[in-house]
UniProtKB/TrEMBL annotation:
It comes from the Bacteria. Signal peptide: none annotated. Pfam families: Cass2 (PF14526). This is AraC family transcriptional regulator. SUPFAM superfamilies: Probable bacterial effector-binding domain. Residues 11-159 form the AraC effector-binding domain. InterPro entries: AraC_E-bd, Cass2, Reg_factor_effector_dom_sf. It comes from Radiobacillus deserti. The lineage of its organism: Bacteria, Bacillati, Bacillota, Bacilli, Bacillales.
Length: 159
């Protein structure tokens, strides 16, 4: 199991394997027109409900798995839990099985650059993104009050 630690946004890439048990809220909207507003909305709404979730690993780490095509996207705001139980009303609990991911460290302000760099690195290493089959990309935010820039990570599932 890979331990997630808050690190400086270095744009360094690596491959990790991780399984996630997540509980949170989601929003579905038109893509790309609904973004990033929809993501910000679900994350903001979720922030006030984090204390309702049981068995939380770390309530200061926000996980945002997402799925999209050229028409619409579903974006989640979640916390990782040890075990899924008593999912609060209006939320969803789910497990993403152990998956190999390409990972990059960036920040909430450099997430677009992070995506550009991770896909360039994947092309260079000849890694292929895994689409849908029990996996999805995940954005991870290390919440830090009273700062404008927070450490973030992007995970892209690999074949």
């Amino acid at each position: 199991m890979y331990p997630f630690h808050k690190t400086i946004a270095t744009f360094e890439c690596e491959v990790i394997t991780k399984k996630f048990h997540l509980v949170g809220q989601s929003i579905t909207t038109n893509y790309p027109g609904g973004f990033p507003d929809a993501a910000i909305k679900v994350q903001t709404e979720f922030e006030s409900r984090r204390d309702e979730i049981k068995n939380v690993v770390n309530k200061e780490i926000l996980y945002s798995p997402h799925m999209c095509n050229e028409i619409f996207a579903t974006y989640f705001a979640c916390l990782e839990v040890e075990e899924i139980e008593d999912v609060p009303e209006g939320m969803t609990g789910f497990t993403l099985p152990a998956t190999k991911y390409a990972k990059i460290s960036c920040s909430n302000n450099t997430i677009d650059e992070g995506y550009t760099k991770i896909f360039a690195w994947m092309d260079e290493k000849e890694y292929v993104q895994k689409w849908f089959h029990y996996s999805c990309p995940i954005e991870i935010y290390y919440l830090d009050e009273n700062v404008d820039e927070e450490v973030a990570e992007i995970l892209i599932p690999l074949e």
